[in-house]
Amino acid sequence: MATSQKSFTQQLKKYYTFYTGGFVAFVVALAIAEQMGMPPRWIGYCFLFFTILLYAGIGIMSRTVEVAEYYVAGRRVPAFFNGMATGADWMSAASFIGMAGTLYLTGFQGLSFIMGWTGGYVLVALLLAPYLRKFGQFTIPDFLGARYGGNIVRSFGVIAAILCSFTYVVAQIYGVGIITSRFTGLEFGIGVFVGLAGILVCSFLGGMRAVTWTQVAQYIILIVAYMIPVVWLSVKHTGVPIPQAVYGKVLERLTEREKQLTADPKEQEVRKIFADRAKAADDKLKALPASFETERAAAAKKVEDLRAGAAPKAELDAAEAALKGFPASPDAAKEKWTKDKAGATARTAPPRPHATPYPGKDEAARDTARLNFIGVVFCMMFGTAALPHILMRYYTTPSVQEARVSVFWSLFFIFLLYFTAPALAVLAKFDVYTLVVGKAFAELPRWVNAWQSVDASLLSIVDINKDGIVQLAEIVIGGDIIVLATPEIAGLPYVISGLVAAGGLAAALSTADGLLLTIANALSHDLYYKMINPNASPTMRITVAKALLLVVAIIAAYVTSLKPGNILFLVGAAFSMAASAFFPALVMGIFWKRASKWGAISGIIAGLGVCLYYMVHTYPTFISWFGTTPMTKWFGLEPISAGMFGVPVGIVTIWIVSLLTPAPEKEVQELVDHVRYPSLAGDIDTRGT
Q1: Residues 291, 294, 295, CA angle at the centre, nearest 5°?
Q2: What is the number of alpha carbons within 13 Å of residue 282 lying toward its C-beta?
Q3: How far apart are CA 374 and CA 409, in angstroms?
Q4: CB 385 within 8 A of CB 668
Q5: Does residue 597 register a pLDDT over 90?
Q6: Residue range 216-226, pLDDT digits in tens
Q7: Quick one: three-class SS letters along 90-109?
Q8: What sign results for the dihedral spanned by CA atoms 591, 592, 598, 603?
């Protein structure tokens, strides 16, 4: 068995070496084609369709109708390759696209995500991975059902797995839509469904087996794509090709530039204009409902006066558009003016110092910022240790020892990107602050106009004070474009932009594959096979899994087209939900024999319930969707940190209810003993196969 596994590992190394060489040759060929005149759009199409065809090829070659292969890749994935696949599974659109963007926008505060996500893998290694691998089986609800007994706790595990995985997968498909629309010219909604096709070809035919080998290929693409632009930016600004080494030096120069922009009279002039706009919006809000009628009448009169005075067509068109878009009711006006006030107020402040920890105008604001930093670290750590699609990866290794080693490799491959993200954010920010701010609007770089045409919420630069020069306060930039625009910011050939898009696509597709598979497996294995039809044949089980995978993917794409929130919030919400629902039940189930079925059920309901309650009453998009009443944030914590309340509530609930209900049966306590003492390196556990 050991010889066979060693031979299998050697074959994999050979295959992926050839694959990497072929991909590099493909990029070089496209670079030559660009120099010979190939249009940028065609380069984007080549990257998009070549990589999707590549993943489809791996998916087709990995097709299977064997249950163990479909659910856990036959439990024969070597630790090194499982670590690489886990890295790709982990490097979602949030990590690849959103992480550096969050650091760009929030500076020091953004480090909370890196600390939380990397720290979470320590919890995985110490508290979960080896024990779940010793347990065997296929899914996280499987463990809950066996550990706590009965289908009730399994059902709640299925519901929680679907909820957090669906929220997460929507964020990935949203990232796919941004990438395909920017680099192929497709409309966002169409781009979402094109990306969906790429997701399905990776996972539909081969399940976990196909997803695993596709994710290894995707990791290679995404890490190469991430590194090249930031190394180039580092050379551009410092002459040193190691961005991590020059991070501190560039940060010092950025800090000096921030001070210059804070004191710049032109910047102060623009911020004053926004302060006046915020006050005007506030005055209209205070005067409602009378201000609604007054403002509507003024808009109508302006149109009449312009028509009577034969005003220029552009001016008349603008006035007519303003009248047409005027709110239909006082309530609609209140909503619009509230947004106007918030948007203007946000642009009245000077640049936030990138290196300043816990920014705030007073001690109370700094305390709130500090608490939110801790909240994000907490939720990302415990969420990482509870995400079903990540924990499932450790079912695929040949042994418990391999599961432990696999966590090490996972951390290493994740570290490569996370160690680079802060440097990328600082280098890109310094470039924008020095080479875009202060330029004439007529001389803006080409990448600015290209990204403004994709979505004004991603990038918008408007001459507020009409001086023809770009001020920082006139720029609205979304964090989701920082990584994707870095090659263009750095002045690299367009082929590198296509490469980064391919990397972002790989990150989003790899995570989406794992998430969709988690949802489909929870429904087909835990709900259909374990609870509805235990006599289903292996062929029927896999057929049901594939059908459900398709249905869930289409629903997720539709929800994504509604643009429910930015990528990082959706991902953070998924982590808070996973932490609240799963972490207490999993860890207490492994380390406390007295944890009972009703304790676990109550803990999952209470933890997840508190988390969801807080989010739907504090996050604006959820408030508008569900019609909930906004409430004051508890201790000032942002909705992304709702797990700060859910996790302790879940732990305390399991503890109290378990002590008040009968102890688990002897067989269950023996299972805990079995799981608590992982097998030796050579002991290959095949339970559930």
Answers
A1: 85
A2: 10
A3: 27
A4: no
A5: yes
A6: 888 888 888 88
A7: HCCHHHHHHHHHHHHHHHHH
A8: negative
